[in-house]
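Hello,

Our lab assistant flagged a job as stuck in the queue for most of the afternoon. It eventually completed. Since we weren't sure the result was trustworthy after the delay, we are filing this so someone can double-check. Below is the sequence as submitted and the structure that was eventually returned. Let us know if re-running is recommended.
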Amino acid sequence: MSQNSWRTGRPLGTCVQRSHSCERVLWGSQSWLQPAFSRLFSAAIHQFLPQETLPPWSAPHSCERVRKILRTLILLTLTTATLAADTQYMIDYVLPRGGARGSTVTAEFHGRSLENPKEILFYGPGITAATFAPFAKPTDGFKVKFQIAPNCPLGEHVLRVRTATALSDAVTFWVGPYPQIPEAETKLGENDSMAKAQPIPMNVTVEGQILPGPDLDRDYYRVQARQGQRISVEVEAARLGTLHLGGENDLAVRILDANDKELGRNDDSSLYVQDPVLSIVAPKDGAYLIEIQQQIFYPPRQAWYRAHIGDFSRPTAIFPAGGQAGTTIEARVLGDPAGERTEQIALPLKPGNFDYFPGSPAEHPPSPNILRISPYPNVLSENAPSGTGPLAGQRAAGAAEAPPTVVPSLPAALNGILLQPNETDTFQFSAKKGQSWNIRVFARTLGAPVDARITLRAANNPKVLFDVDDARLVDLGLPSGRGSWYIKDQQDPITVFRVPADGDYLLSIQDSENGAGPDHVYRIEVEPHRNVVYTHVTGPDGYQMPRFTGFIVPQGGRWTLDVQLAQGIGNDYKGEIELEARGLPRGVTMIAPRFGKGVTRIPVQFVAAADAAPQSALIELLAKPVDKGVQLDSGSRQGFALTNRPGELPWHFVWLSQYALAVTQPAPFDIELEQPALPIVQGGDLTLKARITRHGDFKDAVEIVVDWLPSGVSKGNVVTIPAGKDEAVFQIQANDKASKGVYQIAMNASTVGGDAYSGVGRVRVSSKFVDLKVMEPYLSIDLQRGSVEQGKSAQIVATLHQMQPFEGAATLRLQQLPKGVTMLDPAPQITAKDAQVTFQVAADKDALAGLYKGIVCEIAFTEGGQTFKQHSGSGVLRVDEARVTEAAK
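-- returned structure --
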């Protein structure tokens, strides 16, 4: 699978002539469109504009007819995301969207239910918050001062807000290396031309906005540069995810000289998906213009951007793309218009991704190039060019296939560059039968423009053992509740190679779209296979919802949330699993039932002592095998899309390795779920009783629901306990294949109002766990075939098959009788000793004659003051027309 918007990065500083057909311009920027809408766009374009073409990108006021059609169709397409866009979040957006290292920024938080802010919980170091100042309407938001440390990590910082009663959804704030200046434009037209360009110094970050309005807003900035000096632009826009959803932040950048000559342009990039990066070398001393605008016009709402503009180095790739932990590598820095160079890079000791800022400190870009650190030695493809300079190591045209590079031993990290179209790099290694190796490619994950595909075969056999292109999120250790998102990382394949026989094997890699170039670097890590199970948390529909994906525990109360397990690729461990919580704050404990074999979702409860301090913390939930002799790796994963698109193609995705937990002020009520005295049987239902205890003057209505139930057991609708009432009942049903066993369940209760879907504006608490027993039915019933005449009564006889003993009497009723047929009272009762039962039925004179199937019997058992029901049988009843007697004739 390939996504065009992730493959349109071009070498920085080049000016590639764009195809001007309407369809090409549209698809080049809107690859997220769903197929149905793609067909709609194509049909409209070819129907209304069969011969017309769009003008060059630099002539934005031409072809207005095309623009109007595209605008209308884009608006239509965006309606597919209406429901998601209507979801309420506590935080809609934060302004400004970022700040500079070493500065103090007053940040505004806009949203709802934001009264009484107490703390900003950052997922990383470098920023502290103090001095909260509420808006005029405190529920709408507040201001807070961010103190950004001089050594604060650059880039994206994820945060949440803890209020007195809640923990917000996660949002982001960005940190840059340069002084920050605001865009001067306050209304459309003030900097929309070269003559009105806003003068700015080099090496600044412009906090700008594509202004809303009926016309396209183009922002111009003027800088002075010397001949040979870089002019680099890096834009953060789609990555900001300012409004969680939406797409008006698909921006493009051009650099022009003082005579309006285009020197370079970029709209999408391999490094940052929809966010452009552009770097050129100034051909002479003088003024240069930077133009920023939407790639395709769509009336924006909050289209904020951060444009880093300066003379920094902005390479597109580094080769090799990583190395062995604790070593120093000599690396080639690629894609800088000032020329290729080599750098000595000292690698950290910790394996994983490493943010490397190339060049001297004065040349560092605002965002890093990502390198991979592993415990294994590097192996460089013999196909990879070496040396420096524009022609160094280039292969002759047509030399796409080369002898394999021999890998001395495994594990190892294999590195190369796909320099020529149709090129295939091959590595040869030895392996022994019974070994299992994880083979994973790192290319798009690191920002390289490679859509990798790998194949493997034995050196002495042409039969391909595997051919892998894309990956699933869970295969990459990035599970999601829906499993339907597709992000650029999934273009990097991963597989498990279970060696079938001793011998030599050939592992090949190529670009599935035959892409190639000097920055098409890749890295393949081949390491011993390990069993991995991840924990993750999502909302009821699989998305990250504000109140359902954080742990918000009132003092002296409980919070219950479903935790899911996701197996890493090739996981062989199928046994029972326990959860371990790390980082819980003082006064908070966790109650987690055991995951049985095959179980992937359970309710987990957090309890805060009455004297636990209000606070927030980042915690981990790790999966641990019950069998202590088994090695099982684990990690916490939570993901959410920023700027999600129809078709589940987000432009930016945030992955977190910790969960947020907050202790809040006591809730105004508690809830108790009564321990069921009876089990629920397969094919039956059960009534649960709940009671709330109100505190203080709280008299409002409360909604109750059971979020988690065992497999095969379903819940009824949300039940409301009205104001002034304290008790309610809740129905659950089990199908005939419900999983037998004893399970822990809890009742959740929340105030009404706010947003029922996301939970914003509500206070939510949980009951203690109670045991729910799911068991086989007490008996089964065979309903004999019967008949009844219109206007008369008849009997239906049933045979009882006792499956397990029960006490007392059970009451039986027929259900799904045809219209006009009723069961006569009294309803028959049976005991565990009965073998047969008879029902009396009557048909009125208007009952519709015919043969009716699916007649079932409801069996009601009562024990200890509680009632549960079971359904059994599948009978047939014939309704006959009334007979005409001789007297009637």
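-- support follow-up --
The delay was a queue issue, not a problem with the job. The result is valid. The chain has four helices and 64 strands. The mean pLDDT is 87.
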